[in-house]
Amino acid sequence: MKKVSFAEFGGPDVLQLIDAEEPHAGSGQVRIAVRAAGVNPVDWRVREGQFLAAHPIELPTGVGLDASGVVDEVGEGVEGIEAGEHVFGEGSSTYAEFAVLSAWGRMPEGLTFEEAAGYPSVVETALRVIREVGVQPGQTLLASGASGGVGSAVLQIARDRGITVIGTAGSANQDYLRSLGALATTYGEGWVERVRRLGQVDAALDLAGSGVIRELVELTGDPQKVVSIADLDAPKLGVRFSGVAGSVPDALAEAAGLIARGKLHIPVEKSYTLAEAAAAHIDSQAGHTRGRRVMVV
């Protein structure tokens, strides 16, 4: 099978499309014929070796966490799912023709494989950081870097819970943030004052890692009311860095419910082939994403 892999840490050029042995479903797992794989910032952070201190990685290794596809192997102990069913979920080395998932759910009706691949870890992350930051219905949540996948999910999930949301993004994405129910403003010089004019901030999320932790603490008045998923130095300022996933199956179930009610939609901004993995990482690192980027297999 074809698989994207890297044998050394570094830039996008270390990614290679190789011939590899097919993986097989172990106990509690399913294998899928991958139709699409989500492109997440964690993918290129792993490729760069950013998490080695906490999570040693043996090279060479594959790339990717999220995927959608057709079940073709069911591991020991797995019940309620059969070969041939369409699922989306989280596993490892998903930039490949076949991948093993450790968490999955049936694809919500009406979603394409490309769309479904963009949800799993994004929705889990959004649900987790909303919970960790402690924002309540009737309060206001600021999402810095709100137009990407996690931001898109955060804005919609928070709004569904009765939370007012303020989002910052580039000028080209202001209408997109407003379409998700957010009060929108641009980042850049003077952004703190622009946020203040939109309302008092009760809690804030750093979703882009653009060096705004001090300002988010200033806006909320308390580092305990700020959570980052993108700035590894956030704890130096008393801010929680959230990097440990919660229950992906629970997140997939909640995502399916929100999608069915028309309360959650994350558009696919661009698709790539496996041979274009390096370009996908370059674009992901550049930011300015509106929704999700996915690999199509």
Automatic annotation (TrEMBL):
Organism domain of life: Bacteria
Keyword field contains RNA-binding: yes
Ranges of residues in domain Enoyl reductase (ER): 10-295
Keyword Lyase carried by entry: no
UniProtKB keywords: Cytoplasm, NADP, RNA-binding
SMART domains: PKS_ER
Localization: Cytoplasm
Subunit structure: Homotetramer.
Protein name: NADP-dependent oxidoreductase
Organism whose genome encodes this protein: Streptomyces gossypii
